[in-house]
Write a sequence for this structure.
């Protein structure tokens, strides 16, 4: 633990030439890390002799000696259970360290709040999740004096290069994007950012580390919503950032410790259990989504399907190089705008209408009226979110049953 008072800490400085140090589990395979990283039944907590990581709900930790600061020291910095989760997430993403938060949006806020000062800016695109857009378009510019530059063409490296200036502190990409499934070239954008001495943040929520490894492609920081596929069943609200240890500890001690909003031990423990099956679940999500996408692409009452696994997807070749599979989320456009989308959603019998994705059960949502309502119509059109777009998180049911429900809803 870094025991310097927060006001004595040096601000994290990005070095584009610095190679990240390999984590302690770097030599293990992905599935092995998902089961073992951060905890050994006998060595980690010998007093417990537990096969499963224990839940330690204490929010404060006693000092053994007056001058010896314990680690952990207080629940706003970390807890033993959360420490195991953070080490495991860092191992899965191939990063040095991890810091959890009470949600993905909180993790993003803590990172940007730590890195930027009034007059600075962040470069991103309109291909970001709705709550992130709200932070970028209103909260940070109006309340913190930090601007967000939205690139004109996220598919062109030159567009990213043109948006970065000498006050840019971060470049932020979400790929595949929610809900239009736009795929951004991580390696190309990383090179553009690094050429100007700026780190790259990649939101890996939709793909997860099971399907995509942004750090291996040049990203410096990874943003995660634990709430989605990492949890997988809508029981946990949480988020995390993975990146260089110096940056993670900067955020931990200079922001998180004071704003709070941390992931609690029980939620951390639940997530650890769910991560053990992440690879298996993402494989099944992807297989089902591929079948559903192929079905919808041939349906006469569907105007467009967005899914990286379809050869008709504009970034199909890039997705094939960058991802192991297409993932568990797609979107499609129903005719008739908002009213047409509403009729389809109301007709579903198996698929649930609710605000999240990445659940074991299939779930749908209408972005234009819920998650992306803060965007102007012109911005939604530019981001590929027409009024008839329905986001579908394809679950782990039998694919045939999902397709039957879609068929009857579209024809109803």
């Amino acid at each position: 633990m870094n025991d310097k008072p927060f006001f004595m800490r040096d601000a994290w400085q990005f070095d584009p030439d610095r190679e990240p140090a390999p984590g302690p589990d770097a030599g293990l395979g992905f599935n092995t890390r998902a089961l073992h990283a951060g905890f050994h039944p006998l060595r980690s907590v010998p007093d417990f002799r537990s096969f499963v990581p224990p839940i330690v709900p204490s929010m404060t930790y006693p000092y053994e000696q007056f001058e010896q600061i314990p680690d952990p020291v207080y629940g706003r910095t970390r807890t033993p259970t959360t420490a195991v989760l953070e080490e495991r997430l860092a191992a899965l993403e191939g990063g040095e360290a991890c810091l959890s938060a009470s949600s993905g949006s909180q993790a993003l806020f803590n990172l940007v709040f730590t890195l930027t000062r009034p007059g600075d800016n962040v470069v991103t695109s309109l291909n970001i999740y709705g709550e992130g857009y709200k932070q970028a378009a209103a909260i940070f510019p109006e309340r913190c004096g930090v601007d967000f530059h939205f690139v004109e063409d996220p598919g062109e490296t030159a567009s990213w290069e043109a948006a970065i200036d000498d006050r840019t502190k971060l470049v932020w990409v979400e790929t595949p994007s929610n809900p239009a499934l736009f795929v951004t070239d991580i390696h190309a954008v990383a090179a553009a950012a690094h050429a100007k001495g700026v780190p790259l943040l990649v939101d890996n929520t939709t793909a997860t580390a099971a399907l995509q490894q942004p750090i291996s492609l040049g990203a410096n920081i990874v943003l995660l919503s634990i709430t989605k596929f990492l949890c997988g069943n809508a029981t946990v609200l949480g988020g995390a950032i993975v990146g260089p240890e110096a940056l993670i500890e900067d955020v931990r001690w200079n922001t998180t410790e004071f704003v709070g909003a941390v992931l609690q031990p029980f939620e951390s423990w639940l997530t650890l259990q769910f991560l053990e099956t992440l690879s298996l679940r993402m494989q099944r999500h992807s297989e089902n989504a591929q079948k559903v996408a192929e079905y919808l692409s041939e349906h006469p009452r569907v105007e467009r399907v967005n899914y990286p696994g379809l050869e008709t997807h504009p970034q199909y070749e890039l997705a094939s190089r960058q991802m192991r599979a297409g993932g568990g989320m797609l979107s499609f456009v129903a005719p008739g705008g908002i009213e047409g989308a509403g009729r389809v959603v109301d007709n579903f019998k198996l698929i649930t209408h609710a605000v999240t994705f990445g659940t074991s059960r299939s779930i749908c949502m209408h972005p234009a009226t819920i998650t992306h309502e803060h965007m102007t119509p012109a911005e939604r059109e530019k981001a590929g979110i027409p009024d008839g777009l329905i986001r579908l998180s394809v679950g782990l049911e039998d694919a045939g049953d999902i397709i039957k429900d879609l068929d009857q809803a579209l024809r109803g």
Remarks:
- The first helix runs from residue 30 to 36.
- The first strand starts at residue 97 and ends at 101.
